[in-house]
Amino acid sequence: MWRDASTWAAEALAVFAKEWRCEFRTRYALNTLGLFAFTTLVVVSVSLGPVGVSTSRGTAVLPVLLWVILLFSAAAGLPRAFVQEEETQTATALRLAATPSALFCGKLLYGLTLTFALEILVTPVFVAMTSLDVKSPGLLAAVLAAGGFGLAAGSTLVAAIIAQARSKGTLFSVMAFPVLLPLLLIAVELSRGAVAGDPAGVALLQLLLYDASVTVAGFMLFPVVWNP
Amino acid sequence: MEPLKKLLAGLLWLWMSAVIAGAFLYAPLARGFIGQSSRILFFHVPMAWVSFVAFIAAGIWSLRFLYGGRQPRHDRAAAAAVELGLTFGVLATVTGALWARVMWGAYWNWDPRQTSIVVALLFYGAYLALRSSLEDRDQRARLSAAYAVLGLVVAPFLFFIMPRIMFSLHPQSVINAQGKVEMEPRMVQVLLAGSAGATALFFWIHNLQCRLAALLERNSAPLE
Amino acid sequence: MVTGGIGWVVAVNLIIWTGLFLYLLRLGTRVRDLEKKS
Q1: Which of A162, A185, A221 sits opposite B150 (nearest CB)?
Q2: Residues of B with CB under 8 A from a CB of A
Q3: Which of A99, A172, B40, B124 has the CB geometry, 3.0–4.6 Å to B86, for a possible disulfide?
Q4: What is the DSSP letter of B29?
């Protein structure tokens, strides 16, 4: 049993490594995401004015903008994990070579690392550019981690579903949005709390619960989605 | 229709008539509400409840499809449930907005419950969009079933957990700070009766839709 | 239009229930016809 588990883990890691290796060959996702996030940041920061924004307005508005940037960046970058396989027709090879759950795990890990990398890049720059005074940075980090996890998990599963359909771009947004919206709304509220210095509440746990549910659903449903 | 079905249908109409009468004549007005506007609750709440039931029903039929032999009738049942759920959900949203206008002066203010129902409607819409973008019948059934099962996870969170979180995080919300309505026993009775009747109505219409879909499919593909 | 009065509640109800009744009538007839045909 342990040997099976270790081969499963090896498979998942192999998929994960392949994703990043391919990514570094073209650096497409990193560039697109990076540019997108940075452009949005510039727009936000410039339009808020040189002196920045008052604390009350800042607490109200800026967390929203941060999560909007993260959401749209994720929507731009994450679907490629599956869409590209179909387009380059490597999907068939994957279907033969990999166990579905290990494949999903590898893709999920890729999505997670991509999202976390995005957050690590964007958040400090965002906070600096908007002169946002975050009173509970630990809580903000926790919310970013939990929210980012949910973004990646939901997006990976939906990406797998739409990869086999037409009009993938719009369909992804249409299908992912209802799944990600509850997550986002709570993350925004918690982020606001983190900026204002409120302590973490049960909402963070419920966010993690949502993340876990979506992830488990993903693992359960992926074999059905992947194999005809 | 066979006599038993006719009897059941008649009973349902009687039940719903009683609910309507009860809503207007039997139940008292809710305290703190403007005039007679609270009466709309007896229709708004059951419809919102049914849209949740539809969500769950679609998810369960989708599970049966995926793991119960990929029978087309389960796929048809799931799709019909989503369509009906969308209809009931739209009705619930509209009645809710009308009531919000009377109570709080604005049709829409992203009250947590309004937000939840809108996200649910978006989910239904996305399901139908997915179906219409897939032409191969087996693929369409399989992929939309997967999405509906994901909905099974999302629905309880949307309808029950998220509103509570948003209420507790937003105590300064001027609109309907508690989100609760004090209810007298008679109101509860009419509400429960209405919800039960609406659920029965849902399954009755759903059954008709499924039979229609099956017949249309058979008539358009007689060689299969 | 929408006041505390009972008018709009009655109107909404009329629309919903009449619509539902007509819809069910049409649906039932259609199903019955198709079932008779096949």
Answers
A1: A221
A2: 66, 115, 119-120, 122-123, 125-126, 129-130, 133-134, 138-139, 142-143, 145-147, 149-150, 152-154, 157-158, 161-162, 165-166, 168-170
A3: B124
A4: P
Q: Which chains touch A (3 or more CB pairs under 8 A)?
A: B
Q: Which residues of chain C have pLDDT under 70?
A: 1-5, 38
Per-residue confidence band for B71, with pLDDT thresholds at 50, 70 and 90: very high
B-interface mutation test, from A83, A139, A157, A164, most B Cβ less than 10 A away:
A164
User: Tell me, what's the pLDDT at A155?
Assistant: 94
CA of B50 to nearest chain C CA: how many angstroms apart? 15
Average of pLDDT values for A34-63? Answer: 76
Give, as one character, the DSSP assignment of residue A199.
Answer: P
pLDDT band per the 50, 70, 90 thresholds, residue A94 = confident
Check: CB of residue C5 under 8 Å from CB of residue B35: yes
The predicted complex's ipTM stands at 0.89
Give the distance, in angstroms, between the CA of residue A112 and the centroid of all CA atoms in the same chain: 6
User: At a CB cut-off of 8 Å and minimum separation 6, what does B22 contact?
Assistant: B42, B189, B190, B193
CA A8 to chain CA centroid, Å, is 24
Helices (H), chain B: 3-21, 41-67, 72-104, 112-133, 137-156, 162-169, 185-220
Q: What is the mean pLDDT of residues A175-199?
A: 90
Asked if residues B204 and C23 have their Cβ atoms less than 8 Å apart, the reply is: no
All residues of chain A having their beta carbon less than 8 Å from the beta carbon of residue B113 are: none
> By the CB < 8 Å criterion, does A178 face chain B?
yes
The values of phi and psi at residue A79, to 5°, are -60, -25
Q: Residue B85 pLDDT > 90, yes or no? A: yes
- The answer to whether B89 and B124 are in contact (CB under 8 A) is yes
Q: Is 60 exceeded by the pLDDT of residue B175?
A: no
- Of B108, B97, B105, give the one whose Cα is nearest residue B47: B97
User: Does the pLDDT value for residue B1 go beyond 60?
Assistant: no
Contact B165 A210 (CB under 8 A): no
Residues of chain B neighbouring C27 (CB-CB closer than 8 A): 205, 208-209, 212
Cβ contact A203–B169 (<8 Å):
yes
Domain residues of chain A, as ranges? Answer: 2-226
Average pLDDT over residues B147-162: 91
| Residues making up chain C, counted from first to last | 38
- Residue B172 scores a pLDDT above 60: no
The structure tokens listed for A8 are 């499963």
Place of tokens 């990398």: A117
Do at least 3 CB pairs under 8 Å connect A with B?
A: yes
What sections of A78-136 are H helices per DSSP? 80-87, 91-97, 100-129
